[in-house]
Write a structure and sequence with these properties.
heterodimer, A: mainly alpha, globular, B: mainly alpha
C-alpha cells in the first residue's frame, strides 16, 4: 500500500512538472506571451472571451507566482481554456472526444501486441537457436527499428491505396450515425484494422524480445530442472514454470513502453486521418491553436500516468513480495 | 550451449549493419557528384514517375526526388549523430554523477530522471517545437538533447553503482584522487560499452523523432531532410494522387537506416560483452532499468 501511495505522490509531481512547462513556455518566448498564445485568433475573438482565456492561462496582473497559482487553479478545476480553431468549444471537450478513439486504438493494440509478443517470445526462448527463434529475433529488430510514421505510410499505401482492401481514413463510415448498432460497430472495426495493424507491427517485436530474454535467463534455474525431473510435460514446464516467472519483468517493460505506444499512435492517427488525439493535435499545430497544444500535453501526461499506475497495481498483484513492502 | 549457425547469423547481422550505415554515409558525402540537380530547384514537371532523367521521379513542385533523398541524408545523419551525442553526453554525465556520489545528489538526479521518464516524450517535444515554430534541424537536435537523456542516465547510474564497488575505484579513493578524476578516468572507461549502446540507441531515436516532428509540420520546410520530404509529400497528398515514389522514397530510406543502426547496436553489445551473447541488447537494457526500479 505504501508503495502505491508513494507512486501516486510521484505521479502528482510529474503532472505538476508538465503544467509548469506549459506555464513557462509562452513566457520564455521572445515577445508578448498573450500575443503568442492567442495570435492565431486574430480579431475574431470577442473581448470578453479573450479576457476569460487570459484568466484561464494565468495572464493576470500581479507577480509571477500569483499568475502561476491562477493557472494551476484553472487546471485543477478542469478548465483548460477554449480551442481557438474550434471556438467556442472548450479544450477539454475537443480533446475528450478524441481521447476516446485514441485510448480505444492504443488499448486494443497494446493488448493484442502484448499477448502476441509474449507468446512469440516464450516459444522463441523455448526453441532457442532454432529457425523460429531466428525469424522472431530478426523480425523483431526490423519491426522495432522502423519509425511508426514509415510503417503507417507503407501499410496505408499497400493495403489502402494499392490493394483497396481497407479504408484509408476516418474511424467509421461518416454516413452512419454513431450508435451502438451492429452496422456502426462493424464499420468502426473495419476502419480500425489498418491503424491497429500498424501499431501491432511496431509494438509486438519489443514485447517478444523482452519476453524471450527473460525466459532464457530463467531456463537455467534449478526449479526448471526440478520440474523436468519430476517428469512434467514440456508444455507445462514452459508455461507454468518458466513463462509465469518471466512475465513479471515483462509487465514492468510494459510501463516503459507506454510512452512509445502513445507516440506511435499519435503518428498513426495522422496518417490514417483517425479522429484521435494525434489528428486533433496535427490540426492544432497547423492552426497554431496553442490552448489545444498545451491541453494535449496535460491530457497525454495524465493518460500516461494512469497507465503507469495500472501497471503498478498489476505489479503488486503479480508479485506478492511487494504487498509487504 | 550456443549453436553454431545462430552465432554466424549474428555476426553477419553486425556486418550488414556497418555496411548499411557506411553506404548511406558515403552517398551523403558524395551527393553533389551523384546528381546534376539542385535539391531545391524545379527541374521537371510536377509528379513525374521515375524515369532515366529522374531516377525516383519528381515532387509535386517538380523537384528531383533522388537529389532530395541524397542531400536529405546529410541533414538526417547530421542531426541524428549530433543529437545522439548530446543525449549521450548529458545522460552519461548525470548517470555517473548520481551513481557515484549517491546521497542527496543521487536523490535529486534520480527524481528528475524518473519524472522525465513518465512525461510522454513526443507530446512534450510537440509543445516545445510548436512554441519555437519552424524549428531548424539544429534546434530540433538541441531540444532532443534536453529532453531525451533520461533513459541513458538511468542505465548509466545502475551500471555505475556496480562499478564503484570494484577494487580499483576503492584504491583510487584511498590514494586521495579527486572525485572528478575517479569519475572520468576510473569509472567512465569501464562504462564504455553501455555508453556506446546508449549512443547508437540515441542516434536511432533522434533520427526517428526528427523525421516525426518534421512530418507533423514542426520543422523548417525550406530545409531538405527526410522528414521534410515526408511532410511535403503528405501535404501534396502524394499517395491519393498515385505519386507513390514521392512518399515511399524517404520511407524506405528511414527504414533502411533504422535497421542498419539497430544491427550495429547489436554488434557493439556483443563485442564489448562476450558473456552477454546469449541474451541481447533489449534484455540487457531492461535488466539494467529494472535494477533502478523502485527508487523514486
Amino acid at each position: 500500500m505504501a508503495f502505491l501511495l508513494r507512486r501516486l505522490c510521484f505521479y502528482l509531481a510529474a503532472f505538476l512538472a508538465a503544467a509548469t512547462i506549459n506555464f513557462f513556455l509562452p513566457r520564455l518566448m521572445p515577445g508578448d506571451p498573450v500575443q503568442i498564445m492567442f495570435s492565431s485568433a486574430g480579431a475574431e475573438l470577442p473581448p470578453e472571451s479573450l479576457q476569460a482565456l487570459k484568466l484561464t492561462f494565468g495572464f493576470v496582473d500581479g507577480p509571477l507566482w500569483q499568475q502561476y497559482l491562477t493557472y494551476l487553479g484553472s487546471i485543477f478545476s478542469g478548465d483548460l481554456g477554449r480551442s481557438i480553431k474550434y471556438f467556442p468549444l472548450p479544450v477539454t471537450t475537443v480533446l475528450g472526444n478524441a481521447l476516446v478513439w485514441t485510448v480505444g486504438l492504443m488499448g486494443t493494440a497494446t493488448i493484442v501486441s502484448f499477448t502476441l509478443g509474449t507468446f512469440l517470445g516464450i516459444l522463441a526462448a523455448w526453441r532457442r537457436g532454432s529457425l523460429f527463434d531466428v525469424i522472431v529475433s530478426v523480425g523483431a529488430i526490423f519491426a522495432t527499428s522502423v519509425p511508426a510514421v514509415v510503417t503507417s505510410l507503407i501499410v496505408v499505401f499497400f493495403f489502402g491505396f494499392t490493394l483497396n482492401w481497407f479504408p484509408t481514413g476516418y474511424a467509421a463510415n461518416p454516413a452512419l450515425d454513431p450508435a451502438f448498432t451492429l452496422q456502426y460497430l462493424g464499420s468502426v472495426l473495419y476502419h480500425g484494422i489498418l491503424p491497429m495493424l500498424t501499431l501491432c507491427t511496431v509494438l509486438t517485436g519489443g514485447f517478444a524480445v523482452t519476453m524471450r530474454n527473460n525466459m532464457i535467463n530463467l531456463l537455467g534455474e534449478d526449479y526448471i530442472v526440478m520440474a523436468r525431473a519430476k517428469g512434467l510435460s514440456d508444455g507445462h514446464v514452459m508455461l507454468w514454470y518458466a513463462a509465469r516467472n518471466a512475465l513479471l519483468p515483462t509487465v514492468s517493460s510494459l510501463a516503459i513502453a507506454i510512452g512509445t505506444i502513445l507516440g506511435g499512435s499519435l503518428v498513426t492517427e495522422v496518417v490514417f486521418n483517425y479522429p484521435g488525439l494525434g489528428n486533433i493535435l496535427y490540426q492544432a499545430i497547423l492552426a497554431r491553436d496553442y490552448p489545444v497544444i498545451q491541453g494535449q500535453l496535460l491530457i497525454m501526461t495524465a493518460t500516461m500516468l494512469v497507465a503507469n499506475f495500472i501497471v503498478d497495481v498489476s505489479y503488486v498483484l503479480l508479485d506478492p513480495r511487494l504487498k509487504r513492502a | 550451449m550456443k549453436s553454431q549457425p545462430f552465432g554466424l547469423i549474428r555476426n553477419r547481422k553486425a556486418l550488414v549493419g556497418v555496411a548499411i550505415i557506411a553506404f548511406i554515409l558515403l552517398v551523403a558525402i558524395a551527393a553533389p557528384l551523384l546528381t546534376p540537380y539542385d535539391p531545391g530547384a524545379r527541374v521537371g514537371r510536377p509528379h513525374q514517375a521515375p524515369s532515366l532523367a529522374h531516377w525516383l521521379g519528381t515532387t509535386r513542385i517538380g523537384q528531383d526526388v533522388f537529389t532530395r533523398l541524397i542531400y536529405g541524408a546529410r541533414t538526417s545523419l547530421a542531426v541524428g549523430f549530433g543529437a545522439g551525442l548530446l543525449i549521450t553526453l548529458v545522460g552519461t554525465a548525470l548517470g555517473i554523477l548520481a551513481g557515484y556520489r549517491g546521497g542527496k545528489v543521487d536523490e535529486v538526479i534520480s527524481f528528475f530522471t524518473n519524472m522525465v521518464l513518465v512525461v510522454p516524450n513526443l507530446p512534450l517535444l510537440l509543445v516545445l517545437a510548436a512554441f519555437i515554430g519552424q524549428a531548424s534541424p539544429w534546434v530540433i537536435a538541441l531540444i532532443l538533447g534536453g529532453t531525451s537523456w533520461a533513459w541513458g542516465a538511468r542505465v548509466t547510474r545502475a551500471e555505475t553503482l556496480s562499478v564503484k564497488q570494484k577494487d580499483y575505484v576503492k584504491s583510487a579513493e584511498m590514494m586521495g584522487e579527486p572525485r572528478w578524476r575517479i569519475m572520468t578516468f576510473e569509472i567512465f572507461p569501464n562504462l564504455i560499452s553501455i555508453v556506446g549502446i546508449n549512443f547508437i540507441g540515441s542516434v536511432i531515436f533522434a533520427i526517428i523523432t526528427q523525421a516525426t516532428l518534421e512530418f507533423l509540420g514542426l520543422g523548417d520546410p525550406k530545409v531538405v531532410s527526410w522528414g521534410t520530404m515526408l511532410y511535403a509529400a503528405q501535404k501534396a497528398s502524394a499517395l491519393s494522387v498515385g505519386a507513390w515514389w514521392d512518399i515511399l522514397t524517404p520511407c524506405f530510406a528511414l527504414a533502411f537506416l533504422g535497421i542498419g543502426l539497430s544491427l550495429l547496436n547489436f554488434a557493439v553489445d556483443e563485442i564489448a560483452n562476450p558473456r552477454l551473447r546469449t541474451g541481447n541488447r533489449l534484455g540487457r537494457w531492461s535488466a539494467l532499468i529494472r535494477s533502478g526500479e523502485g527508487r523514486l
